[in-house]
């Protein structure tokens, strides 16, 4: 999984660019996690419990994106996906799910999460 973190020097806004198919992870880091150290610590504790088999599944509903973790993988998805609403599209149109849902391994996610914290703490 490829990713890059940046901060817009003019506006101070955060940017998390992820490889194609993983864009939802970038949105989640920026929009749902941001610079909140409490959320970061809570998720690290959840990951530790999952790795020690003290927890089987965990999820957090965010403003626009939610996250689910189990002992093997992480799923980030737009809240609209779980709402059960179906959209009718013309035959020539289809939805691109890369920006609304992404999966990755728990270990990979933990590495990215730690990289995000270093990025935030260094004030880039």
What report would you give on this structure?
This protein is α+β, with helices and mostly antiparallel strands and 124 residues long. The chain has one domain (3-80, 97-122). The chain is 38% helix and 26% strand. The chain has four helices and six strands, in the order ββααβββαβα. It has helices at 23-33, 37-51, 79-82, 106-122, and strands at residues 3-7, 14-18, 57-61, 65-70, 73-78, 101-105. It has a four-stranded antiparallel sheet with strand order 3-4-5-6. Strands 1-2 form a two-stranded antiparallel sheet. Helix 2 (37-51) runs antiparallel to helix 4. The longest helix is centred in the C-terminal third of the chain and has 17 residues, at 106-122. The protein is globular.
